[in-house]
Structures are given as C-alpha cells and as structure tokens.
UniProtKB/TrEMBL annotation:
<protein>
    <recommendedName>
        <fullName>Glyceraldehyde-3-phosphate dehydrogenase</fullName>
        <ecNumber>1.2.1.-</ecNumber>
    </recommendedName>
</protein>
<dbReference type="GO" id="GO:0051287">
    <property type="term" value="F:NAD binding"/>
</dbReference>
<dbReference type="GO" id="GO:0006006">
    <property type="term" value="P:glucose metabolic process"/>
</dbReference>
<dbReference type="Pfam" id="PF02800">
    <property type="entry name" value="Gp_dh_C"/>
</dbReference>
<keyword id="KW-0560">Oxidoreductase</keyword>
<dbReference type="InterPro" id="IPR036291">
    <property type="entry name" value="NAD(P)-bd_dom_sf"/>
</dbReference>
<dbReference type="InterPro" id="IPR020829">
    <property type="entry name" value="GlycerAld_3-P_DH_cat"/>
</dbReference>
<dbReference type="InterPro" id="IPR020828">
    <property type="entry name" value="GlycerAld_3-P_DH_NAD(P)-bd"/>
</dbReference>
<feature type="domain" description="Glyceraldehyde 3-phosphate dehydrogenase NAD(P) binding">
    <location>
        <begin position="126"/>
        <end position="287"/>
    </location>
</feature>
<dbReference type="InterPro" id="IPR006424">
    <property type="entry name" value="Glyceraldehyde-3-P_DH_1"/>
</dbReference>
<dbReference type="InterPro" id="IPR020831">
    <property type="entry name" value="GlycerAld/Erythrose_P_DH"/>
</dbReference>
<dbReference type="InterPro" id="IPR020830">
    <property type="entry name" value="GlycerAld_3-P_DH_AS"/>
</dbReference>
<dbReference type="GO" id="GO:0004365">
    <property type="term" value="F:glyceraldehyde-3-phosphate dehydrogenase (NAD+) (phosphorylating) activity"/>
</dbReference>
<comment type="similarity">
    <text>Belongs to the glyceraldehyde-3-phosphate dehydrogenase family.</text>
</comment>
<dbReference type="GO" id="GO:0050661">
    <property type="term" value="F:NADP binding"/>
</dbReference>
<dbReference type="Pfam" id="PF00044">
    <property type="entry name" value="Gp_dh_N"/>
</dbReference>
Amino acid sequence: MSEQTPISQADWNERVELAEKMIPLIGKLRRENNVVVSIFGRLLVTATEIDIIKSHRYARRITEHELPLSQTLPILEELVKMDLGTVSIDLGALATKFEAEGGDLRTFLDRELDDVIGTADKTPQTDIVLYGFGRIGRLLARILLARQAMYNGPRLRAIVVRKNGDQDLEKRASLLRRDSVHGAFEGSITVDEEKNIIWANGTPIQVIYSSDPATVDYTEYGINDAIVVDNTGRWRDRAGLEQHLKSKGVARVLLTAPGKGDIKNVVYGVNQKDITPEDQILSAASCTTNAITPVLKVLDEKWGVNYGHVETVHSFTNDQNLIDNFHKGARRGRAATLNMVITETGAAKAVSKALPQFEGKLTGSSIRVPTPDVSMAVLNLNMVNDVTVEDVNDYIRQVSLVSELRQQIDYIKSPEVVSTDFVGSTHAGVVDGLATIAKGKQLVLYVWYDNEFGYSNQVIRIVEEMAGARPKVRPMRLELTEV
C-alpha cells in the first residue's frame, strides 16, 4: 500500500468545502429516493464532513490511492437528478469504474443504474414483530428503525413481552434509549402509557403483553402477514415455533438461535438463496456460526478444507451467574465477571447446516471470558492445498472489499486492535491479518465478531430477504470466483 501523502491546510479546507456540498445531496437521495450512499462499504447516511473525507482516504485499501472528492461530487450531483428507486450505491466503486471507462457521466450512470431508474416506492412493506426484548431484541429494534429511515421496507410494528410491574413500559423504553455497551439510541424515544406504545423517531411500537405466542391477535393492532422474530430462545424446534403461526396476523417466524430438527439454519451471505416462500419457520443460526461460516466458505472454495477445530473465546452472556450460585449448566454457575469458563458450543457442527460439505469436518469448544461483548473464533484448519500467510491475508482482504461477502467478512491488519475496537461492527466476522498463521497445509485464522450487533445485522438481512425487500447494490459486487 502506498504511503499517505501529507495534507496541507489549504488542501484540507478544500476537502471540507467539497464534503459540505455532498451532505445535503446524500440526505436528499435518502429522503426522497431511499438511496443509501457508501464509499467502498463505509456508509455515508449520517456522515459528517470528516467522515466523508476519511472514507475517501479509506479507498487506498482498494485503489492504492485516495479517492478525490472532486471525482465523487459530480456523480452525486447527477444522481439527485435521476428518478431512482431503492438502491445502495457504492460511490467509490462507481467513481473508480467511471474513471476506468471514461465517456459521458450521465450516459454511464444511466447504463449502470438502468434497473433502478423509475422504481421508487416499489419496495414491499412488511410488518415486523419482535417476540422478546432482551439484548438481541433491542438491537434488532435499533437496526430496524435505522433502516426504516433509509429504506422503505420492513416496519417494526410491535414487541411482545411479559409484563414485569407497573413501570414495565417506561423501563423497556429506557433500556432501548440507553445501552452500557452500544451507547445511546440515535434519536428520540417517548412513551404513551395509555396505549402501551413506545414512540421511537416518529415510529409507534406497540407493546403487547403476553406469555402465550399462540393467542395474540395482531390484527387488533393493524398488523397483518407479519414476520415474527423470536429472540427469546425459549422454543427452538418446529412444534414450539409453530405456536406463533396460530396467532392472527402472523405469516412467518424467524428464530434468533440455532434451530433444531428440520428447521433451515440460514447464514446470510452463504445460503440465503435456499429460502423459499414456503418456508414459514427459519433460523438465523448463532452469532458464532454466522462469524465463521462465511470465512470457511471462502477458504474452502479457494484452497479446500480437510478438517479443523474451532475454539471460541466468547463474552459472557445473560444465562451465566454474576456471582457463584446454582446453575443447571456445568461451570456456568461460577461468577461470569471473574472467571474464564469452559463450556460447550454447537457452532462448529452447525456450520454444516449452511455448508453441507463441512458435515463431520469440524469440532468446537468455547471459553466464556469476563467481557460483556465482542468474541473471537480461532479456526485451526488442515487444508487440502498449501497456504501462506500472504496469500490467505491478501485474498481475505480482497473478499472483504469487493466481493458478495463484503457485508459478512471484514479484514484488519493493525498491531494495536483489541476486542472493544469491534463493538458496533456490522460484519458477521473480522479476520485479524496479523494473527494469521500458515505452514504447509496448516492454517490458523483469528476472527473477531461483535456477538450482539454484528449478529443482529445478519438477522435483519434475513428478515429483509424473507420480506423481498433487500436493497439492490450498484455496482454489483463480485462473485468469489471473480475475486
């Protein structure tokens, strides 16, 4: 990678001026056309001038040089004149492609965006109900509300919980508003105690009190053909989850835990194309399975994987005790904030539910550690073909930048990163390039993942796929065979 060129004060001021001109254009595209703009994956939805400048410098990871703001601003100025529908536009990739091809800018854009011109307001809206409102439920709500503001797609309509006292509504709203790990909610939250509604950024979220998933009448609240996202973990088999389908207004169910029996376990980016309209009940697998499966897919297709072991170093979770006390699970009764706790994980075996070729190839175990969020998976693999650190890192880096798995796999190579640096990552997993070990057919990869927020983003991607509301991406990302 080329060295960074120092920026003079005059050059910096010029960049700030160009970035200031871009902000209202980005906002206009989002508000009027449901168009989200990014620079090689770095979203510019709520970007400041500094964010925009840094995102253009980030382009060095791909193009070996910075992306000039003077090159992207004219593209934005043309985009706001076009009758675009819902789409995610990678401004960096678009500018790079235009620079290589040349010609007339508007002719180029008409060709690249042909299938999204004149498609405004055609994204289907689907009602979403969150059954349960714990750690994952509240993050799902945050993401849904943010994406509602960007795209005209799935709408969060209600949450279903068991009532815990007279102040239940206010407390749940407060937990949505403030989070010790993920920070404050971006926006405004108020409550209507008379109607049991939490108002979040202008969206009314109906709070329904029930302990029986089969008896809720969602149609009473104007909710129809809803996707229920069950994040309680209480039921994981088909018989238990089918209870949701007995309630009026429910069309489909998504479980935020590994499903048992014949339930499809979906890892977005890997096997979401297996979802059919007939699938009424689906699973989003686990956070660890989501973190490792995309990486394993890439490695297997490039070099082949004979077998391996996955060791997860996982943050403690709510099912552990804060201090020593009785727990039905082995070792989980010991104080979570004071101990490393060896426990089991089914994540390695669950990989084969998304990638059948891994059946019987992986073993796995887990160590719970005294951190509240962000975990790590260590992949110790025996490969079919020889590998080197340089080849593996370079390929993973390219996959993370330009491939169809860009939202699932990220890559970093920094000597100072630690777990808290990955809080808020929207990726399923982040490969740590400095930790890669390779010798002959032996490969060890370290994959960081925000087991709360990264996983929740994967869940929402499945929700949008089920709703037929995944935004198109332009220019189209490369298939793995093209990287």
